[in-house]
Amino acid sequence: FSSYHALQVTLNREMRRGLVVYTNYTWSKTLANVDSSFSGDNGGRPLDTYNRKLEKSVAELDQPHMFKGYVSYDLPFRGKGLLRTAFGGWSVSAITNYYSGRPLTFTAPTPLTGGWNGAANRANIAAGDLKNAGFSKSNFELSTPASANNTYLNKALFSVPAPLTLGSAARRYTQLRGMGTVNEDIGIQKSHYFGEGWRFQFRAELLDAFNRSNLSGLNTAVNNASFGQFTGIGGNRQVQLSARVDF
Length: 247
Description:
This protein is mainly beta. Helix content is 3%, strand content 42%. It is built from 1 helix and 16 strands. The protein has one helix at residues 81-87; strands spanning 2-14, 19-32, 57-58, 65-74, 90-99, 103-104, 107-108, 121-122, 124-125, 158-159, 173-177, 181-194, 198-207, 214-216, 232-234, 238-246. Strands 1, 2, 3, 4, 5, 12, 13 and 16 form an 8-stranded antiparallel sheet that branches. A two-stranded antiparallel sheet has the order 6-11. A hairpin with a 4-residue loop joins β1 (2-14) and β2.
């Protein structure tokens, strides 16, 4: 079973003088006892075949806050002759994406040393703030993955379940999530028309214009030596130039 509830707000406005604005905000929650309608995509059997309620949690794709925005503006130059050719036809645009992080799953060793027929076991989690109070994204050390600066989780609250027992954690945890998405793309383009049937267009695009990075590779296996730590980083500005002729 699954359920999805959301508040969705959209603003779509084409204004005078070449200004176009489109924004969309979604506040939602997705609950499910599986991650996919295809049986092979759900990590094998339930944790406890006789207690399916243990599988109910927020879905893997749950992101409660999602904002997308687009704006485009035609620069208002109205010259004549060569001035119009050089300075007319320019427009700028921007696309923004801001999303919450996805929920986390904390795994633990199997309750039986010889294996068992359930899903991966889950960790025991005590009450308290799951985030390491001293963590700061700006202090991440890529060259030293085991550095204390890379520790995102409060490890003291996590423990391995005793033999022959199942962990107390939910299938997905929302008290603490993975890194969210913050991204802005900016485009500048110029269009020049030749007669009635030809158009030349030049475009420059800055993807991830402000060069924002995002941490990745968070280890959530409680018995792993690097548990609770980010191990990678990604995201960088990309600039691409293009030209096209339409006829």
